[in-house]
Write a structure and sequence with these properties.
The chain has a domain of about 170 residues. Helix 1 runs antiparallel to helix 4. By secondary structure, it is of the alpha+beta class. The strands form four sheets. A four-stranded antiparallel beta sheet has the order 1-2-7-4, with helices on both faces. The protein is globular, with a radius of gyration of 20 Å. Belongs to the QueG family. InterPro entries: 4Fe4S_Fe-S-bd, 4Fe4S_Fe_S_CS, QueG, QueG_DUF1730. Its EC number is 1.17.99.6. Pfam families: Fer4_16, QueG_DUF1730. Its cofactor is cob(II)alamin; [4Fe-4S] cluster.
């Protein structure tokens, strides 16, 4: 029988083998400090039209309600920072969506990690989560010692910045737990707050999701409110502004995941190319992509909203 420390070390080594950039472990317990924050955020309506955020309140705070007998939450990060970026003077896509849909790519690696744990240790019950269930992933990453929540509410790591996905394994296996990350290294910096085109970043380390460009271009299914007409900064899917200006992202290094490589020619599309995109081209360019979530109709809605109005001659 391996010791708790040996079990934890094995999981971290396997995570590195599978390409995860960091791995930490926390005790599966009730997130007492997060409960009032989440309740107030919802009460303030900062979730916009994302009504699903109001569901499963208790499950968001207690992983033992998601996995019976849960003992540990294994938090992992996976780098997606690209080597190449879109050309200038183009409508913009968030960097995480350049390649194949991260939900499947990262979750496949999580399943492989869970299989390795079972092969090495024995019968282990658990579930894999990649941004698709009621899990407060940034809170768990902090508790597992992976980093701290920046003023833009994204997790930041000293050596890597913030361009990475978070994922979790909630398992009924007792493990040695890591120390929570308790130091915030943002200091007096307010670059993300100052740069946000729609002023969605609040001064209390929270986001007004109803103003966030990522919400407006992806989650919002209705028309984009006219008040944002000149505030979209040419983003047609998601937004990276708060990350692009963050000083910690000077440490970002290009990912090594082939499935995150952008589709051929996508990065070179001009604004005119995007304005003339057909549904057939959309399906070809964004096959297996997270951009499919907004659909062709959603992407064209976004483009039509942000493109300049042609003045009559």
């Amino acid at each position: 029988m391996k010791s708790l420390e040996q079990r934890s070390q094995f999981i971290k080594e396997e995570a590195r083998r599978l390409g995860f950039s960091a791995c930490g472990i926390a005790k599966a317990d009730f997130l007492e400090d997060e409960a009032p924050k989440l309740e107030q955020w919802l009460k303030n309506g900062h979730h916009g039209s994302m009504q699903y955020m109001e569901n499963h309140f208790d499950k968001r705070l207690d992983p033992r309600l998601l996995v019976e007998g849960a003992k540990s939450v294994v938090s992992l990060s996976f780098n997606y920072y690209p080597e190449e970026k879109q050309v200038d003077n183009s409508y913009k896509i968030a960097k995480y969506a350049y390649g194949e849909d991260y939900h499947k790519v990262v979750k496949d690696k999580l399943f492989e990690l869970l299989t390795s744990i079972r092969d090495e240790i024995g019968a282990v019950d658990g579930r894999c989560f990649v941004d698709s269930a009621p899990v407060l992933e940034r809170a768990w990453a902090e508790k597992a010692g992976l980093g701290w929540n920046g003023k833009h509410t994204l997790l930041i790591q000293k050596q890597q910045g913030s361009f990475f996905f978070l994922a979790e394994l909630i398992i009924d296996l007792e493990l040695a737990h890591d120390h929570p990350f308790t130091t915030n290294h943002c200091g007096r910096c307010t670059k993300c707050i100052d740069a946000c085109p729609t002023q969605a970043i609040l001064p209390n380390n929270q986001i007004d999701g109803s103003k966030c460009i990522s919400y407006l271009t992806i989650e919002l299914k209705d028309s984009i409110p006219i008040q944002f007409k000149d505030q979209m900064d040419d983003w047609m899917f998601g937004c990276d502004v708060c990350q692009d200006v963050c000083p910690w992202n000077r440490f970002s290094k290009s990912h090594q995941e082939p499935l995150f490589q952008p589709k051929e020619n996508m990065l070179s599309f001009s604004k005119k190319d995007w304005e003339e995109i057909t549904e057939e081209t959309f399906k070809k360019v964004f096959k297996k992509s997270a951009v499919k979530r907004t659909k062709y109709s959603g992407l064209t809605r976004n483009i039509n909203f942000i493109k300049p109005v042609q003045k009559p001659e």
